């Protein structure tokens, strides 16, 4: 019996009714919807899905519903992250859509990795030690690919490179009063990004503890290139652990065939970046066939930040992997 499926990750870039650039959801959906349909995905990991808040305070994902209307994804099983109070977050929800039944689901945020304590040194006034907490949880699903085969999917959105807030040192959304304050903010963001990666790695090893041959896929906007620390933490490659007995627990970072320059999922100052990734366990690597990055119409994010020109598309390209087993 042949089993085949397609797995995708796509940062929708602040999916909302009306964005800061004034574009309406209908204008954005007209371009985003064909991108989603092109994926032909059985499982889709989405990032940056914003919520609509009603007068009574409750939130829903009406924006996503309207985007998916008329597509096959409208009928997929859906898993959404929430706040500590069990409420859909106002911004940057993780949403996973699955053609297959979801056997189990969980989200984690500082459940396995406590927030570090740190005392800022460049703030305007003396500040006591504070918790360095990351803003978004990770999403962990177990999906029934077949009655006897289950896939563990981790949907991640790691902290961006933007420097974290330092009291009294911001003079604009992207402007700082002192270079050392920006540097400390960038340092704090790196702690958050790598801490999120560590929590995901602990989940991965929990899965392997229960099933040494588990099929695992880690997908999302990791805000890191292939050779950066966050990716190394997720992979736990033997070159880093120095223990060949742990080789089966290492994850493989999937890469498209051909010219490496075609693998960019984002552009910034004319440079192709690849912050969006899919990593898989060795058992799933045996099913792997190919990876696509749909980046033909990428816009340079830095141009938009400088000019304020609105773009209906996301600054991220969707990434999709195909798997098949006999």
Task: Describe the protein in words.
The chain is α+β, with helices and mostly antiparallel strands and 326 residues long. It has a single domain, classed as 4-Layer Sandwich (Deoxyribonuclease I, Chain A), CATH 3.60.10.10. It is built from 7 helices and 20 strands. It has helices at residues 25-39, 62-68, 179-210, 229-235, 238-241, 282-285, 301-307, and strands at 3-15, 43-49, 52-53, 59-60, 77-80, 93-98, 102-108, 116-118, 130-132, 138-146, 149-157, 170-172, 175-176, 215-221, 252-253, 266-268, 271-273, 276-280, 288-293, 319-325. It has a 6-stranded mixed beta sheet, with helices on one face. α1 links the parallel β1 (3-15) and β2 (43-49).
How would you briefly describe this protein structure?
By secondary structure, the protein is an alpha+beta fold. The chain has one domain: Deoxyribonuclease I, Chain A (4-Layer Sandwich).
List keywords for this structure.
alpha+beta, 6-stranded mixed sheet, 326 residues, Deoxyribonuclease I, Chain A
List the helices and strands and how they pair.
Elements: E1 3-15, H1 25-39, E2 43-49, E3 52-53, E4 59-60, H2 62-68, E5 77-80, E6 93-98, E7 102-108, E8 116-118, E9 130-132, E10 138-146, E11 149-157, E12 170-172, E13 175-176, H3 179-210, E14 215-221, H4 229-235, H5 238-241, E15 252-253, E16 266-268, E17 271-273, E18 276-280, H6 282-285, E19 288-293, H7 301-307, E20 319-325
Parallel strand pairs: 1-2, 11-14
Antiparallel strand pairs: 1-20, 2-6, 3-4, 5-6, 7-10, 8-9, 10-11, 12-13, 14-18, 15-18, 16-17, 19-20
Helix pairs in contact: 1-2, 3-4
């Amino acid at each position: 019996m042949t089993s085949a499926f397609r797995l995708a990750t796509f940062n929708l870039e602040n999916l909302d009714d009306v964005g800061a650039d004034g574009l309406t959801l209908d204008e954005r959906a007209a371009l985003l919807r064909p991108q989603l349909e092109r994926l032909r995905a059985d499982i889709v990991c989405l990032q940056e899905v914003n919520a609509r808040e009603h007068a009574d305070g409750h939130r829903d994902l009406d924006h996503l519903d309207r985007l998916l209307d008329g597509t096959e994804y409208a009928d997929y099983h859906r898993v959404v992250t929430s706040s500590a109070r069990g409420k859909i977050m106002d911004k940057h929800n993780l949403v996973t859509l699955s053609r297959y039944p979801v056997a189990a689901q969980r989200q984690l945020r500082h459940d396995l990795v406590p927030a570090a304590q740190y005392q800022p040194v460049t703030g305007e006034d003396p500040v006591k030690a504070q918790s360095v907490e990351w803003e978004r949880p990770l999403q962990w699903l177990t999906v029934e690919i077949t009655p006897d085969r289950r896939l563990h999917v981790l949907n991640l959105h790691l902290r961006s490179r933007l420097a974290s807030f330092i009291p009294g040192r911001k003079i604009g959304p992207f402007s700082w009063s002192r270079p050392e304050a920006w540097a400390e903010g960038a340092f704090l963001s790196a702690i958050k990004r790598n801490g999120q990666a560590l929590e995901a790695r602990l989940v991965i090893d929990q899965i392997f503890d229960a099933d040494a041959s588990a099929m695992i896929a880690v997908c999302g906007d990791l805000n890191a290139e292939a050779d950066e620390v966050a990716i190394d933490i997720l992979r736990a490659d033997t070159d880093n652990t120095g223990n060949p007995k742990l080789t089966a627990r290492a994850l493989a970072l999937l890469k498209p065939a051909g010219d490496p320059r075609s693998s960019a999922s984002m552009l910034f100052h004319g440079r192709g970046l690849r912050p969006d990734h899919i990593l898989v366990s060795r058992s799933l690597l045996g099913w792997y066939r190919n990876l696509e990055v749909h980046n033909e119409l990428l816009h340079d994010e830095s141009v938009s930040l400088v000019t304020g020109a609105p773009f209906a598309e996301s600054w991220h390209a969707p990434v999709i992997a195909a798997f098949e087993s006999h």
